[in-house]
């Protein structure tokens, strides 16, 4: 399969600048995830990660700049998203949730609640896909339960019980 055109969308983080790139949306999302995840470790800066990821993933500087912009947009909402994770995760305290799961939840919630260019079901499905790739099968169930619970509450669907890991 050739290059996929990822969007002709406006990135809200940079004054409505139109972003167009030749990259599958799943690959772009994985890059954003990896930038977010690497930011959770002390001593790692974005300036160090961009050249490293460009080399390892064989992507252009433009794609990395766009992914960094997206990552920063997620970080701007991180406190609000983390509060939502704390409120929704009844079985595990926030501190017990693995870094991979937290990062995927942060990106998933950002796409679900703050990005109107991504359909809600796609945001949830992509978070599950990231869990299967970077986490465990159990983490995908947990992330699905958390995102689905908030989705149902936000969009008027009654939820019988809070999200828990089964």
In one word, what is the shape? Answer: globular
Largest sheet: 2 strands, antiparallel
Strand content: 5-15%
Number of helices: 7
Strand order of the largest sheet: 1-2
Quaternary class:
single chain
Helix content: 55-70%
Q: At the third CATH level, what is the topology name of the largest domain?
A: N-utilizing Substance Protein B Homolog, Chain A
Number of spatially distinct domains: 2
Tally the beta strands: 2
Mean pLDDT: 80
> Which residues form runs of ≥5 with pLDDT under 50?
1-21, 158-162
Tell me the span between the first and last alpha carbons. 38 Å
Order of helices and strands: EEHHHHHHH
Which structural class matches the secondary elements? mainly alpha
Describe the 3D structure:
There is one protein chain. This protein has a two-stranded antiparallel sheet. The protein is globular and about 40 Å long. 61% of the residues lie in helices and 7% in strands. The protein has 166 residues and is mainly α. Residues 1-21 and 158-162 have low confidence and may be disordered. Helix 1 packs across helix 5, helix 2 (46-57) packs across helix 3 and helix 5 runs parallel beside helix 7 (137-154). It folds into two domains: 1-76; 77-166, N-utilizing Substance Protein B Homolog, Chain A, CATH 1.10.940.10.
Describe the structure concisely for a colleague.
With 166 residues, the protein is mostly helical. It is built from seven helices and two strands, in the order ββααααααα. It starts with a strand and ends in a 12-residue tail after the last helix.
């Amino acid at each position: 399969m050739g290059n996929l055109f990822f969007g002709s969308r406006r990135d809200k983080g940079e004054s409505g600048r139109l972003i167009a790139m030749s990259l599958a949306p799943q690959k772009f999302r994985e890059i954003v995830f990896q930038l977010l995840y690497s930011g959770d470790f002390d001593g790692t800066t974005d300036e160090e990660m961009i050249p490293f990821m460009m080399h390892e993933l064989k992507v252009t500087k433009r794609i990395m700049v766009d992914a960094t912009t997206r990552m920063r947009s997620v970080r701007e909402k991180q406190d609000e998203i983390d509060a939502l994770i704390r409120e929704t995760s009844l079985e595990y305290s926030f501190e017990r949730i693995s870094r991979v799961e937290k990062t995927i939840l942060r990106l998933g919630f950002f796409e679900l609640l703050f990005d109107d260019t991504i359909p809600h079901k796609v945001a949830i499905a992509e978070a599950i896909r990231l869990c299967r790739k970077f986490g465990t099968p159990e983490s995908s169930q947990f992330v699905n339960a958390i995102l689905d619970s908030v989705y149902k509450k936000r969009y008027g669907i009654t939820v019988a019980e809070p999200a828990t890991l089964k």
